[in-house]
Write a structure and sequence with these properties.
Structural class: mainly alpha
Strand content: under 5%
Number of helices: 7
Number of strands: 0
Helix content: over 70%
Distance between the termini: 57 Å
Order of helices and strands: HHHHHHH
Largest sheet: none
Amino acid sequence: MIKFTFFESLSPQVISTLIVVAFLAIVFIIIGLKVKKLDPHKTPKGFVFFCIVLVETFNNMVKSYVQEKPYRFFAPYLFTIITFLAFANTISLFGLVAPLSNLGVALSFSVMTFFIIKIAEFKYLGVIKKVDGLLGPVKPMAILMLPINLVGEISTPFSMGLRLFVNLMGGAVIATMVYAALHWTLGIIAGVFLHVVFDIFFGLIQAFVFFMLTTVNISMASDA
């Protein structure tokens, strides 16, 4: 019998995603209000000073890859991506399920990145130059190069999302295997080490890799 339902329970990964989004939204609003109240003649202190240095470091790094106009347009998205992924990939330290361990959540980043790259291409390269690039430099070979280039256009962002999913799932599988193979006491000791490696080190590395791949693709897409 077919059963129709309007609402289904959310998966643990989606719940973790909503928690991270809500937490970051609150933190960003609080920091924004504090920065707005700063005296321009005084040096900021404490957490606000740390946030300003962090944003300035991020801006300088992105500027080295992306030109000034695209930088101003895409920098907020890039900063949001790396901040979210840094928290999402390490949230299992607090007993929550990593959002990117769900293929649907991971691929949603691929979809967003795909549209962001297309926006950069059509905004800064233009339709004619983009189509000309898809046809290739040798126009008699255009009928062969067009489908190949179209596959490359789609596969690049989706491979980035799959990279996030596979790395997080791989870490979870390895950790589970170690727990099962070792004695209970040794499993706890090894578990501490594995959480440090997979939840912190590898999680932050994957966030940075996705951010850099997105930045480089936007830079290439907007380089007129």
